[in-house]
Write a structure and sequence with these properties.
9-stranded antiparallel sheet, single chain, alpha+beta
Length: 246
């Protein structure tokens, strides 16, 4: 069965792109953040200062766990889209209902164009395109993640009720993928009512990745999106895909 362009009843909770970058040393951290939040397309968004913003910039940049964390969040009134900004990272998030790649991709292109326009000489060191999915039995016909196209055994005994499976795959030189499949008891935070399981597909670049070309990023996005769809739909049977598309 061909991979659908867009499911009528997709399971996407959140789709996002994170761009990590190395700015010119001549720019102070607060100048970088100020330039990034100045995008005209985001003028109507609500600006929120995140807790990490209270930490001094030198401390944030010295700590590898905080270096790429956002300090400002821009959200729309309906709270289904957000831009997160840090001194070395910029990300765009869309929440359920997913707008579709035809809408999402131009927004991502706009994000990348804005980064290169306001931070001349910027070098992008990591890209991450991520889709987080939650299955609802009544909508998707998937009662448990064990009904996906996976087979987990420990000492020849099947593991089917409660598990958290993480595995990595790759395609070519610049498409790494981390897949996380979990039953609800392994997932924290506000969860959809009656969710039967979660699939998180994260496509990202390798550690040695560097680019100063927006066009190279656009090409990567198209390839990453195609790879993400292949990975996700390989977990579903033809019958499950057909159910989600009706």
């Amino acid at each position: 069965m061909p991979v659908p362009t867009k499911l009528k009843h997709d399971a996407i909770l959140e789709a996002l792109l994170e761009v990590r970058f190395d700015p010119p040393q001549s720019l102070a951290p607060e100048v970088i953040v100020g330039k990034l939040v100045s995008c005209n397309d985001w003028a109507g968004l609500i600006q929120n200062r995140l807790p990490l913003a209270d930490m001094p910039a030198p401390i944030r940049q010295a700590d590898t766990t905080m270096r790429y964390q956002p300090i400002i969040e821009l959200v729309n009134e309906s709270r289904d889209m957000a831009i997160k900004v840090g001194e070395r990272a910029l990300s765009l998030h869309v929440l359920k209902p997913y707008c579709g790649w035809d809408v999402f991709a131009p927004r991502l292109h706009g994000l990348v164009k804005h980064l290169f326009a306001v931070i001349p000489g910027v070098s992008v060191c990591r890209l991450g395109l991520r889709y987080i999915n939650a299955f609802l039995p009544g909508v998707h016909g998937i009662d448990a993640v064990s009904s996906l196209q996976i087979d987990i055994k420990v000492a020849d005994q099947p593991v089917s009720k409660s598990f958290n499976l993480n595995y990595g795959v790759s395609r070519g030189d610049n498409l790494q993928c981390l897949v996380k499949i979990a039953s609800p008891d392994f997932v924290q935070g506000p969860l959809p009512k009656d969710a039967s399981g979660f699939v998180d597909v994260d496509i990202f670049t390798p550690a040695e990745f560097k680019t100063e070309s927006g066009n190279a990023i656009f090409e990567w996005l198209d390839a990453a999106h195609g790879y993400e769809k292949d990975v996700f739909f390989n977990l579903l049977s033809v019958e499950q895909i057909d159910r989600m598309n009706k």
